[in-house]
Write a structure and sequence with these properties.
This protein is an alpha/beta fold. 42% of the residues lie in helices and 14% in strands. The strands form 2 sheets. The chain has a 7-stranded parallel beta sheet. Strands 9-1-10 form a 3-stranded parallel beta sheet, with helices on one face. The structure holds ligand V47 and iron/sulfur cluster. Ligand V47 is lined by residues 76-78, 146, 177-180, 182, 217, 219, 221, 252, 254, 256-257, 261, 294, 315, 323-324, 327.
Length: 363
């Protein structure tokens, strides 16, 4: 197979890819630094098609944010509020019931549930939340709580990590979303999210989650103050843990949105960087099955093009996204299944509606 590359530094990387050889951290840095976006994209597309052919996945899901009250107050977050501040909210069990019931006629198979760290909520709130959702939608997967919330919950209930995860699993937790690691760098953490757990704890929690028999996703927040080396390190750490546990399902690059945050001076990410992050992830994370182009963050148009740059999944219908929209995202708050399928088929890919575990679901 011939892949034309304009940046000659990509040639040895291409040879490794053809021979199924793992890329190094140095290769990762070259991929990020190269201006040959199309060349990097072709390599990622080659790997993507080797693994998934023309299939492109999406999920019929619903997002639910149970509270925006958060004691961490990361500098990049526009979503969090202090208790009592205007716009602060915490959903009661009835509110949650109402939101799930309002969509009962739709074939939702995943509920994506995350929130802030609200120190007024007891541990039972979280197990009850999962039970309430499962009562109404027993067939749906509850994909809930980032590693940051798991750490907080275990400490709140004075439980070991293992016991806390087990209690949530017993209540019906089905898998974990990928947030909370941001960029695994002590430097960035100290500047942007000093109160949030660091990389060791994030990795420890993901390992415990995988050992408890649950899968999770992984993300990376890019486009703020992180360096290329820090991005590469982040991917290497994820790849290392995946070698150990095999518990990561998908990786999702998250484009930073600065509006209404304390980093409002930082420009939005560019189309170049959005596509590059998808492609580099596809190439570096050789042990991850799925790379998601999260349309909420990069827009439907770029997400569709990202299918040619290594992405095999567009995430979901979502219905009511809050975190990125509070930070100025101009995308829709939800897409219909028809819109998702149209993005996929009009690019020549084959749509597969999936559940949380990438099993095809009948339409
Ligand atoms: O960890 C917060 C990010 C994450 C901003 O697993 C921001 O399928 C951009 O984890 N601009 C939570 N990003 C979201 C998350 C997620 C999203 C979609 C799919 C999945 C999945 C997981 O949101 C946080 C943080 O990195 N975030 N503020 C912002 N201003
Ligand atoms: Fe809280 Fe998460 Fe926002 Fe940080 S990103 S302030 S932990 S809600």
């Amino acid at each position: 197979m011939k892949i034309q590359l304009f940046d000659q530094r990509l040639e040895p990387i291409k040879n490794k890819i053809f021979q199924n050889e793992r890329l190094s951290a140095e290769d990762g840095a070259i991929l990020y630094e190269s201006n040959d976006l199309i060349g990097v994209g072709r390599l990622a597309d080659y790997v993507r098609r080797r693994r998934h052919g023309a299939k492109a996945y999406y999920v019929y899901n619903q997002h639910l944010n149970y509270t925006n009250v958060c004691i961490n107050r990361c500098l990049f977050c526009a979503y969090a509020k202090d208790e009592g501040q205007k716009g602060a909210f915490t959903l009661t069990a009835d509110d949650i019931r109402e939101r799930i019931n309002a969509r009962l006629d739709e074939p939702i198979c995943e509920l994506h549930i995350v929130g802030g760290l609200n120190d007024k909520l007891p541990f039972d709130y979280y197990t009850d939340l999962i039970r309430t959702v499962k009562e109404i939608r027993p067939q749906a997967t509850v994909k809930a709580f980032t590693a940051v919330e798991i750490d907080y919950l275990a400490r709140l209930a004075n439980l070991s990590l293992k016991a806390a995860i087990q209690a949530l699993k017993d209540a019906g937790l089905g898998m974990l979303p990928g947030g909370g690691a941001e960029v695994m760098s002590a430097r960035v953490r100290q500047k942007l999210f000093p109160r949030k757990i660091g990389q060791e704890r994030w990795l420890e929690i993901m390992q415990a989650v995988h050992e408890a028999g649950l899968t999770s996703n992984a993300t990376m927040l890019y486009g703020h103050i992180e360096t290329v080396q820090e991005r590469v390190k982040h991917l290497m750490l994820l790849r290392e843990l995946q070698d150990m546990t095999g518990g990561f399902s998908a990786f999702i690059p998250l484009a930073f949105h600065s509006k209404n945050t304390r980093l409002a001076h930082i420009e939005s990410t560019t189309g170049f960087d959005d596509l590059k992050n998808v492609a580099v992830a596809r190439l570096m994370l050789d042990n991850f099955d799925h790379i998601k182009a999260y349309w909420v963050m990069i827009g439907e148009k770029s997400a569709q093009i990202a299918l040619f740059f290594g992405a095999d999944d567009l995430d979901g219908t979502i219905i009511e996204e809050k975190i990125t929209h509070t930070a100025g995202a101009s995308t829709a708050k939800g897409l219909s299944a028809e819109q998702m399928e149209n993005l996929i088929t009009s690019a020549g890919f084959e749509p597969v509606r999936r559940d949380s575990f990438y099993r095809p679901v009948g339409v």
